[in-house]
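Hi support team,

I'm filing this because I wasn't sure whether my run with adenosine-5'-diphosphate finished correctly. The job status page said complete, but I'd like someone to confirm that the output block is well-formed before I use it downstream. Pasting the exact inputs I used:
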Amino acid sequence: MSLALKELVRVGSLLIVALFGGALSGSYGWSLLIVLSLWVLFQALEFRRWSRWSKHPLSRPDNVSALWRTPAERVYQSVHGNRQRARNVLAQIRRLQMATEALPDGAVLMTPGGVIETFNGAARRLLGLSGEDQGENLGMLIRHPDLAALINGELEEDIIEIAAPNEEGRRLEIRRIAVDADRILILARDVTQLNRLLTMRQDFIANVSHELRTPLTVIMGYLEATEDPSLDRATLRELLGKLASPAQRMRALVDDLLLLTRLESSPALDPDQIGEVDVPKLVQRIVADATQLSAGRHRINVDVDAQLRLRGVESELHSAFGNLVANAVRYSPEGGDIDVRWYHTDAGARFEVEDHGVGIQPEHLSRITERFYRIDLAGARVRGGTGLGLSIVKHVLKRHDSGLAVRSEFGRGSRFYCVFPPEFSLPVN
Ligand code: ADP
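And here is everything the job wrote out:
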């Protein structure tokens, strides 16, 4: 039944009541007046309810009559729906804001003329902006001719690199993106680390080329000498024999480079390769190699706990421990004592190599594990290292949950050591 019809039925019923009342009282006029007055009073109350509700139509209307309640309910549903939609849009905006805030890159939304509308936290940090800068011109806040040209779209490529306005050493890559006819987006990215990596890569290539060129030049020299047709067989053989040393040097360098690349590309140990390493036996082999390298010029003392083993990758530990012992030989004068120790401590198993050689000045200590870092370039090359040894040691130890420690006194000697956590140490009873 429609609302109007219901209301008609209700008015009709009231009239019938009035008629009954009139018949009983004998006064139809009074009866009709009383019933109509009651009806008007009821409608007035309903109107008051509706009027009160219409000021804040956020809850359901409390009208009793369907005539008032139903249209009010429709208004309420529509307001409620709109509110829900607005809430969803707000939540979306908030999520978008959160995502923009979490971006590591600075984002500044502005007019094509450079007037800032809004920006995120990274822009605050990288470009030194603050809340008061909204409405200001970015080109005026950060005075840089390239930035001004970028904002105005005058550059061929919409990208520049400048020093950060609040930190000289930091480099920023700034990009311009046209959002629409009225807005542009400026993105700022910190490229300091990236630049550093690029420089490191260039340095690395330069270092490798340099290291390879030296033995290669020696080989070329000998090969040229062999071209002399007047050479007798004995001299020729002697010349060819001299090729072995630079060739070995090149091979050592390439081997170390490959090993280092492998170690760097997989920071965790390969579980298939992990096994129980018989360190006392390993030390024996390393010391035999070092004795050969020393050619009797040093005394190598070994003090190992024959029961103490290690969980790890034997080939890697061989490289690490071998490099430390070989360094002790190479950087110790003739007659120097070298001590190799492997023993148990409360912190774990400890491997230690102590020499009484040239020692290291404190200012170099933090850098000796960098690739190709050498304290005395000329002297070091004569000693025959590749400059990668301690880098390899550092990586191997890190993969075994350990780290390299150095105590050194310039001119008196050094002690290189590492401690393996108990879960890597395997004391055998
Ligand atoms: P290298 O092949 O030149 O020995 P490393 O990475 O093994 O390369 O060592 C880096 C530098 O650390 C060496 O060039 C040397 O100057 C210094 N160094 C390493 N071990 C010792 C040591 N036992 N005594 C003195 N200096 C050392």
